[in-house]
Design brief:
Layout: H1 16-33, E1 47-52, H2 58-69, E2 73-78, H3 90-99, E3 104-109, H4 114-121, E4 126-131, H5 137-151, E5 158-162, H6 169-180, E6 184-188, E7 204-206, H7 209-213, E8 218-221, H8 237-244, H9 248-251, E9 259-261, H10 274-277, H11 284-302, H12 307-311
Parallel strand pairs: 1-2, 1-3, 3-4, 5-6, 5-8, 6-7, 8-9
């Protein structure tokens, strides 16, 4: 089937077939990235603007590298040195960037819904690089792609997401992606951060870490999203770690073949011990590497490219 979307705003709105199209395109670009010459001319002459209003390392750099691997020109927006400090609105900033003949905007913003808002205002594609506690679609796409590399098809596979679910856009995007791919998903953490209403999304909720980890094939750790919490949802970080941090003892409850994931940034010694983050069970750096190919796929498809064109050349 042809790719018909101009924007990538949320996993919630994608079909399973569209997720698999992005994964197939990602796999083709990953093969290209393994060559001695890693660039392709797919977006030559295009200008991509990374419009990031929140701090970012992995996502921003991965989008920059992805655009350059596609031969696009890349401009990274510095909010601290922009007219937004003088009161310019997001709308005016984005419309000025469009007037400067940008071809695509990658937006990260603290306000949920901001990428959707821009997509309705602009005549150029918008890709969501994280909007508040709403979604982070390319992270979920690279996470599920990484899982499939290790497990194959995800139908019936047992995935545990552990940590701050309530305030995590990564968790929401992964829930949508994993349920569409028919994985068996369990959310784990303190009841204040993993409320029971998440079961409405087709997942299980547990506050018993040992039983949840027992048959998990994937455990994804999430950091505590302090920047989005108006008040504390547990007594202290030390108490959170003592009950839900993944350490050697708790890792022993896992299936020996289970993989450990984390979208980053990692708070070592809080949600995960350093020796586990760096162990051979961890695929955290694989997630980072796969992030380039996933973002190449997103940029390429939203710019009008078609999956079959890449599949035949990879």
């Amino acid at each position: 089937m042809p790719w018909n979307r101009r924007n990538l705003i949320a996993i919630e709105e994608l079909s399973r077939a569209e997720i698999e199209q992005i994964h197939a395109t990602t796999a083709a670009f990953k093969k290209i990235l393994q060559r001695s010459v890693k660039k392709v001319p797919a977006l030559r002459g295009k200008t991509i603007v990374n419009l990031f209003f929140e701090p970012s390392t992995r996502t921003r750099i991965a989008f920059e590298m992805a655009a350059k691997r596609l031969s696009a020109d890349v401009i990274s927006f510095d909010a601290a040195a922009s007219s937004t400090t003088k009161g310019e609105t997001l709308r005016d900033t984005a419309q000025n960037i469009q007037a400067l003949n940008a071809d695509l905007i990658v937006l990260r913003h603290s306000a949920a819904g901001s990428p959707l808002y821009l997509s309705r205002l602009l005549n150029i594609p918008v890709i969501n690089a994280g909007d508040g506690a709403h979604e982070h679609p390319t992270q979920a796409l690279l996470d599920t792609f990484t899982m499939k590399e290790h497990l194959g098809a995800l139908k019936g596979r047992k995935v545990v997401i552990l940590g701050d679910i309530l305030f995590s856009r990564v968790a929401r995007s992964n829930i949508w992606a994993l349920t569409k791919l028919e994985a068996d998903v369990t959310l784990v953490g303190p009841s204040t951060l993993v409320p029971h209403w998440f079961t409405d999304l087709g997942v299980k909720v547990s506050h018993d870490l040992k039983s949840a980890l027992a048959d998990a094939e994937v455990v994804m750790l999430l950091r505590i999203q302090h920047e989005r919490q108006a008040s504390s949802h547990f007594p202290s970080l030390g108490e959170y770690t003592s009950m839900f941090g993944l350490n050697k003892t708790r890792a022993s409850w896992l299936n020996p073949k289970a993989i450990i994931m984390h979208p980053g940034p990692i708070n070592r010694g809080v949600e995960i011990d350093s020796d586990l983050a760096d162990s051979n069970r961890s695929v955290i750096l694989e997630q980072v590497s796969n992030g380039i190919a996933v973002r190449m796929a997103a940029l390429y498809l939203c710019s009008g490219g078609q999956p079959e064109a890449v599949l035949t050349t990879a």
